Amino acid sequence: MGDDLGDEWWQHEDACESEEETEQEKQPTEKTKTETKPEKRKRITEKTVKAKKKKSEQTECVTAQKKETEDEKSTKPKKKRKKKKTITEVLATSEPKPGSPADLQNLVTQYFSDKRSVIEQEELKLQDSCFLSSNDLTHSLSSYLKQVCPKWAKIQKQHTGKSSVVLLIVCSSALRTIELIKQLTTFKGEAKAVKLFAKHIKIEEQVKLLQKGVTHIGVGTPGRISALIEKEGLNLQALKYVVLDWNWRDQKLRRMVDIPERRCDLTRSNWTL
């Protein structure tokens, strides 16, 4: 006797085997799916690495080109800039010429060209009769003053006013002032000379010195002279001669009018006009 289940036993075994095979087939497919994912990542990373390599190669090419252009520029000869000549270089090559009335007149017109009208500038022009004969570079200070002031002894005796001078000598510095006073010994006689510069001397002291006694000759710088006039420490009523130390040159071969500060003080002073 036996049970009849409607299915034969060998067919059942075949079905089980087929199910097992299908399960085994499914498992490797799933594995392959999981295995394919890192391959995609690898491809992405490879692409990024290649792109970075391309960028680095491009930057290297650009830097190499820049270096080449810089090397070319360095090899090219540079244009030399022309240096401006200084006052000392210009004056060293030029021959010394004595000052003239035209030089002073040109200096005044240049200074007031943008400060006054044309009519006012014409009023500033001085006649030739206002000027003494200039030094031709052969005279010393004493010999030149003897030439232009032949009646100095009489003029000296007639002057009795205080806070005033008869002769005013304008120079560029305090040291030059002392040198000129020493050179006046053969000319001045019994006349009294006073130093009018700002170095180590207060303006109040100079005002008191001028008020004490009679002074005949004043030697100093244009800045201090104009300051004394503004403070009414120096009176110009008795003034007859103004001498400019025009031709003298310092160690840098500069004249008084070549120094900007002295030139400005000289041209803007009221006593020169």
UniProtKB/TrEMBL annotation:
Residues 39-55, 76-85 have a biased composition (Basic residues). GO terms for cellular component: 90S preribosome; nucleus. Residues 1-102 are annotated as: Disordered. It comes from the Eukaryota. Residues 24-38, 65-75 have a biased composition (Basic and acidic residues). SUPFAM superfamilies: P-loop containing nucleoside triphosphate hydrolases. Pfam families: CMS1 (PF14617). This is Cms1 ribosomal small subunit homolog.
